[in-house]
């Protein structure tokens, strides 16, 4: 009898303790910590600005940097990320089968992926609009002028469906030519294989920036098909991992807001200017425990990878060859749409 | 048939009289010859002008690159990426050495002195272990490089060599099973061969790489690269089994019976009488299969392997090198060509050798 009471007592105490424990227990994070590496999605080739390979055969790009930031948050060392090369078509099955822990690969947040595919998404970290680009000498200004022409699309992406939808809506007939890779698509377009191609804003800007002959030979048409929110995708069922990823992104944005950079993070930690910074950098403890991480995770991450602004400019913006304007991808306080949840 | 033998090459000397008769015998012939020669000369000139005369060679003067000439700077700067993929930069000597081992082994196994089961077997097993130990490294006490970092030409060679090595015996086994007198074995072999052959290679590989891990428990999965190699080898084996079957069917039944009458067992008849002839008959199609397989390894790009084509894509996939994709593809094409041309030439040599043996 006494035994039973004790047992019941244990169960009740455990249940009472459960909510606080659950908030810090992510199965995926635990698995990553046991393995000692974070498995991220790479690409089977290169995707300008987001996933590239440098002269030393190392990955670089916006998505790669975010993966390294997450790795630093969880494991304390950006070098512990393992980038697994994946094709576009392979990324979701690879996530489900556990080949990767997370997909950070210029992936749009769609309803189908969120529901049928059994994924869940982080808060968006990038917004890219879909537009058409055409050869300037055709004299086209909007998509209606493309009647009877050809259009190159990337196979199996949201852009393909989006373009087909849009052309149907405006009642314009074009024949679609699909390619597996962005680089092939680009080559085909430049070789006049198609009159126009549908692209995602950053790609179009990259193409114009790297087209050596004459950037004015290409026009980006007025039509705006969509603005796609780009987010990290994870397996359904581990909400705590989503929390970690969301707060990793939030920390990068808060750091930018507060002016914390990879250069001054140590100084800020030693001498936090306000309570929010103290909280973020772990001077005022509590941030780590809630996520099941170390209190200093954000400080280490920013020291290794920089804040959102640094990551953007290194890969797409002013410090990269692409010089892509930040536009929507700025913080809300600078006219963009990125905002961080409240750090309390 | 007399005509055919008279056309047979009589050496490398050019028969000028015949050449003259065939090209400039009449004014019309002369006109056509000159016209074709001019067109071809012009095309060759265009190619040379682009590839050599107006080309830029060094990565340091990439700023001199233009649309008129080839910009080989991209190959100069990125050749290590194309050849070794994502393999750690400081450890490229290991990848180089591993490639050399595989190429040397292929060259060595072309010499007739090596052609015994024991020697070939030892050579290939040694070479293969050497390759794996060098590339992976942890067993030799060096820094470990996991298979997802293997890439470029090194990976293409590895895939090709392991697929052919595993697939050949499997194909022979399947061909023998299909000829078996036991109905169950025969049926089983036909079922496997027909099933795999009716699936596209892409589906087979995608299943091995992506679907299998969802179905099987962790301890049964193995490394992705081995799953893909086994699936690819099975695919190769099923086609190769049909090639061998053709070879078997070309051998008169009387030879089996003669063997039996001499008191030889099944394996003796097979090994000493039938198989040598089967190989000879199957040789042209086998060389064909091997060449096709070499080129088909490029399909692994779809399941995220960084083979030579994928690493070529990454080589021009950065802002500085983006306009020079043509140069990278030409470089990769030359690599493919040199390998496949040598394979073809080796096949020709084997055929000549075997015809001599048959006389």
Automatic annotation (TrEMBL), chain A:
Range of residues in the leader sequence: 1-24
Start and end residues of each Solute-binding protein family 3/N-terminal domain: 38-268
GO biological process: one example: amino acid transport
Entry annotated with the keyword Transcription: no
A Pfam match: SBP_bac_3
Keywords assigned by UniProt, alphabetized: Signal, Transport
Matches recorded under InterPro entries: Bact_solute-bind_prot3, Solute-binding_3/MltF_N
Annotated PANTHER family: AMINO ACID ABC TRANSPORTER PERMEASE, AMINO-ACID ABC TRANSPORTER-BINDING PROTEIN YHDW-RELATED
Family: Belongs to the bacterial solute-binding protein 3 family.
Name of the protein this chain belongs to: General L-amino acid transport system substrate-binding protein
TrEMBL record, chain B:
Membrane topology, record value: Multi-pass membrane protein
GO molecular function annotation: transmembrane transporter activity
Subcellular location per the Swiss-Prot or TrEMBL entry: Cell inner membrane; Cell membrane
GO cellular component entries: ATP-binding cassette (ABC) transporter complex
InterPro entries, per the entry: AA_ABC_transptr_permease_3TM, ArtM/GltK/GlnP/TcyL/YhdX-like, MetI-like, MetI-like_sf
Claim: Membrane is one of the keywords in the record: yes
Transmembrane segments: 30-53, 91-111, 123-141, 153-177, 198-219, 225-244, 298-322, 328-346
Pfam families: BPD_transp_1 (PF00528)
PROSITE patterns: ABC_TM1
Annotated ranges, domain ABC transmembrane type-1: 153-341
GO annotation, biological process: amino acid transport
Superkingdom classification of source: Bacteria
Keywords, in A-Z order: Cell membrane, Membrane, Transmembrane, Transmembrane helix, Transport
PANTHER family linked to this entry: INNER MEMBRANE AMINO-ACID ABC TRANSPORTER PERMEASE PROTEIN YHDY (PTHR30614:SF41), MEMBRANE COMPONENT OF AMINO ACID ABC TRANSPORTER (PTHR30614)
Family, as annotated: Belongs to the binding-protein-dependent transport system permease family. HisMQ subfamily.
Protein name: General L-amino acid transport system permease protein
Organism: Epibacterium ulvae
